[in-house]
Structure formats: structure tokens, C-alpha cells
Amino acid sequence: MKEIELLTVKELQAKLVELGMPEDDAKAFKTKAPMIASIRTLEAKEVVIDTVKGEAGEVKKVASIEERPNPSEDREVNKKWKSKAEKMKARLLAQEQVSILIPVEAHEHAGVVEWRTDKNGQQYQVHISGAVESVQLNGYKYFIPKGIYTRVPRQIAEVISNSQQQTLEAGKDISLDRIDPNTGRPFADSL
After folding, report:
1. Which of 131, 132, 151, 161 could cysteine-pair with 97, CB 3.0–4.6 Å?
2. 118 — phi, psi (to 5°)?
């Protein structure tokens, strides 16, 4: 066979059709460079599909170069994730409980969260209505209703406290009320 670069546009179009490209798509090409690139790609794909080596070194044919989902692997990953979340839940519920209050925004109503028990005797939270804040640690999500004092595990209270502290401190370095280190007076006074 001729060197691919020496083929004419018509010959390249015929080669594309031979490799499986629809004839209309092959005829849409008018220059050699994209046709040659497409031919090389299609030939490389054929090589991959036809000659994938197995574990023992034998050549075997594969239907696709795409990875297929493995149900047993998916179950194992889900099992590990679920056990991680369950461990976190047990750890949180064993901690000391502290009362916190998360204020509601102007357009929000106080939240309602209930603890329920499933058929296996496991407790879980359900968001009934209103505004809630959620904290997720290691896959376990804990709901805290806004607008009412709520007893929560200490670790959840620390996460909420850190979040609120960061919100309060945001923008302090650009505030007009900050003190100018050169004059010792607020920046707003110099405007």
C-alpha cells in the first residue's frame, strides 16, 4: 500500500470509509491533514481493540476501550463509604452534647428536625421544615435547625463555631473601620 501522505483526497476518503467512518462524514473532509490524522486515529483504535494483551500474555479481543462498571467493586466502595459514615455517626453520638443557636436569616423560618428510627432500630434525622444548617463529616450528615437552641455533639458545635468565626472575620482587612498602622486612627477618618 502507498505511503498514507502520498494518497489523493479521494483515496483518503475511501480509506476512511473502509475504517468505518460514514461515507457522508468522509466526504466532508476537503484537505489531507485532518483526513490523515483521522485515519491514524482509527487505525490506532483498531490496533488497541484487536490486540489487548491478557494477564498471561495472550492476545484477546475486547469489545470496547471504555472501562465497564464493576458491580462488585462498586458494592465494596459503597460498603466502605457507608461503614465510614456509620463509624462517624457512632463517634458523634457518643460525644458530649452542647447547646448552640444558629440565627435565622431575615427571610427564613425556624427549622424543625426530627429523629426517627428505621426498621433496623437505627436512628436518623429528618428535615421537616424551616431553615437548617448541615454539617457533613466523613460521609455522615448532621442537621441543625436554625433559630432554636439545639443540643449537638461537641465536634459539630466546633465546626459551626469555626464557620461562624470565619464569616465574622471575612473582610476585616479591607474594612474602613480598621486601624491604619501609620496613624493609629481608623481609615474612615482619612477619607
Report:
1. 151
2. -85, 180
Quick one: which of 62, 50, 10, 65 has its CA closest to 18? 10
**Single-letter code of the amino acid located at 146:** K
CB-based contacts of 39, cutoff 8 Å, min separation 6: 4, 12, 15, 16, 19
**pLDDT per position as a tens digit, 10-27:** 998 998 888 888 888 888
Instruction: Report whether 186 contacts 179 (CB < 8 A).
Output: yes
| Cβ(35)–Cβ(29) below 8 Å | yes
Q: What is the pLDDT of residues 40-55, one digit of tens each?
A: 888 876 555 555 555 5
Residue where the block lists cell 468505518:
20
SS3 assignment, position 59: strand
**φ, ψ at 8 (rounded to 5°):** -80, 170
Helices (H), 19-153: 23-28, 32-50, 71-93
Give, rounded to a whole angstrom, the gap between the first and last alpha carbons of the chain. 81
What is each CA distance from 70 to 74, 75, 76, 83, in whole angstroms? 6, 9, 10, 20
Q: Which of 128, 162, 158 is nearest to 146 (CA)?
A: 128
